[in-house]
Design goal:
single chain; mainly beta; four-stranded antiparallel sheet
Amino acid sequence: MTYELKDNTGSVFANDRKTEDTHPDRTGTAKIGGREYWVSGWLHKTKKGQPYLSLSFKPKNADDARPKQNIRDDMRNLVPF
């Protein structure tokens, strides 16, 4: 049985692939408005020492997974010679 995300829900887990301080402490997925997102979270503390989780959301679709063409490739298609 596979887990299916319901709308406006998500899950994050400890990032066992973290190799640098800038990598997220938590990673996962969420579904918001029928669209799936990658979720990244970083553990922080307030000035008073209270822990909190800072989150980032990135759309999870095929267009974002493809590498971006560089400008030279774009220009090559426009220049006729």
